[in-house]
Amino acid sequence: MSYTINAQTRTEIGKGSSRRLRHAGQVPAVIYGAGKEPVSIKFAHKDIINIQLNDNFYTTDLTVVVDGKEIKVRVQAVQRHAFKPMVEHIDFKFA
Question: Is the pLDDT at 1 greater than 90, yes or no?
Answer without folding.
Answer: no
